[in-house]
Amino acid sequence: CRLDGSQDDTARLATALAAFDTVLCPAGTYRLTSLLVPGGKRIVTAGRGTVFQQAPGQPEGTRMFRIESSNVALGLEGFTLRGNIATDTGEQMHGVLIAAPAGPVSD
Q1: Nearest to 78 by CA among 107, 47, 105
Q2: Intra-chain end-to-end CA distance of the chain, in Å
Q3: Distance between CA atoms of residues 106 and 63, nearest Å
Q4: Among candidates 50, 41, 53, 48, which has minimal Cα distance to 9?
Q5: Averaged in consecutive runs of 10 residues, what is the pLDDT profile of the chain (107 residues)?
Q6: Do the beta carbons of residue 60 and residue 35 sit within 8 Å?
Q7: For residue 29, what pLDDT is reported?
């Protein structure tokens, strides 16, 4: 893993999240397409030195992080998020989507 944004790190992070409850992302640049963060998982970062850069050419509305479960912690020390708004015109909402799980909701 080079941590310089030159390669897609989405699959590597997804594999780590499947295997561990806590994943450490040290300082560096991680290139992502779209990553679903499962419930009960934590991504620990090195503050602003941990940069999540969206891979170029993603469809409009693609979020780098999707949180659709409960008990998720993302970037406890902070992080930097970079979408492609400067290079991919017309795109919005590059960052983080937090949504209720699909299915019926009970009181």
Answers
A1: 47
A2: 45
A3: 27
A4: 53
A5: 84 95 93 91 90 84 83 79 63 63 53
A6: no
A7: 93
14-15-18-21 Cα dihedral, nearest 10 degrees? -80
Residue 17: exposure state from Cβ atoms within 10 A (0-12, 13-18, ≥19): buried
Report the pLDDT value the prediction gives residue 86, as an integer from 0 to 100.
56
Dihedral angle computed from the Cα positions of residues 45, 37, 22 and 94, in that order, rounded to the nearest 10 degrees:
0
- The sign of the dihedral angle between the CA atoms of 74, 84, 98, 9 is negative
Quote the pLDDT of residue 89: 56
Instruction: Count CB neighbours of 62 within 10 A.
Output: 20
pLDDT at 102: 62
Give burial (CB, 10 Å; 0-12/13-18/19+) of 99: exposed
Residue 105's pLDDT is 47
